[in-house]
Amino acid sequence: MAIWNPWHGCHKISPGCANCYVYRRDESIGKDAGIVSKTGDYNLPLKKNRQGEYKLTPGGGVVFCCMTSDFFLEDADEWRQGCWDMIRERADLEFHIITKRIDRFEECIPPDWGDGWDHVTICSTCENQDRMDHRLPILLSLPIKHRQVISEPMLEEIDMESYLATGLIEHVVCGGESGPKARPCNLDWILKVREQCIQYGVPFTFKQTGAVFIKDGKTYHIERKYQMSQARKSGYSYYPGINR
Ligand code: SF4
After folding, report:
1. Going along the chain, which residue ranges are E strands?
2. Whose CA is closest to atom 6 on ligand 1?
3. 67 CB near ligand 1 (under 6 Å)
């Protein structure tokens, strides 16, 4: 697993962005996260060590793209084609592109995209029902080989059933919000999506509780270091064939 941040900085466009960790982290060091710039890691997939070997080990698994920005951000339009060229060349890796801008997908894909590339997964972030009902019909209509849905921070109860029923979603990830201004996440919301995933045999990951977690009507404040481990220990993640 690797992270590739070809550019840094972003613009808030969605309720899920309100407490964006990129803004939070940049503010803490006096930086403006609204300024978007290329990073020194722009060409990471092609970087080699002194022995002439790729730094990202061939066949090395998932590369998460643009974790401090959005791959389909307008500011990055002139840099994106170079990324596609690198992604095409490194077909031995699995690139996961997480975006809140799935509505820009068609104007951002390379000319030879065709019906999608086998080694690219597009992950659409949907933090509430409104954003899900806007983004998932787009995600499902596009030529993409692998689709995932990420509901993190999950801000309310969401009904995902009609989208899961298409059989086009390969994985769903849910979780709460972290940070000092975190909004609450309710276990009931997590369990509802989990049940829907089980119904359609779609792998489900409960990634983190978030900082403010409601269970059985009681509110818990959870330290950062326990937010992921508590979710893991809950056993609510579901991988067909492995548990249930
Ligand atoms: S799209 Fe992602 S990176 Fe950009 S502001 Fe929103 S939460 Fe932050």
Report:
1. 2-4, 7-8, 37-38, 62-65, 94-99, 120-125, 146-151, 171-175, 185-186, 204-208, 212-215, 218-221
2. 17
3. no
Q: Are 8 and 68 in contact (CB under 8 A)?
A: yes
CA-angle at 13, arms to 75 and 167, nearest 5°: 100
> How far is 241 from 126, CA to CA, in rounded Å?
26
Instruction: Give the mean pLDDT of 209-233.
Output: 98
Distances, alpha carbon 134 to alpha carbons 100, 126, 127, in Å: 11, 9, 11
What are the pLDDT digits (tens) for 116-130? 999 999 999 999 999
Burial of 29 (0-12, 13-18, 19+ CB in 10 A): exposed
Q: How far is CA 238 from CA 67, 70, 190, in A?
A: 25, 28, 12
Mutate to test the pocket of ligand 1, among 3, 11, 17, 181 (most ligand atoms within 8 A of CB): 17
What is d(CA 51, CA 212) in angstroms, rounded to the nearest whole number? 48
CA distance 211 to 222: 5
> What is the separation, in whole angstroms, between the first and last Cα of the chain?
26
pTM of the entire structure?
0.96
pLDDT tens, 79-134? 999 999 999 999 999 999 999 999 999 999 999 999 999 999 999 999 999 999 99
Spans of all domains in the chain: 1-121, 152-244
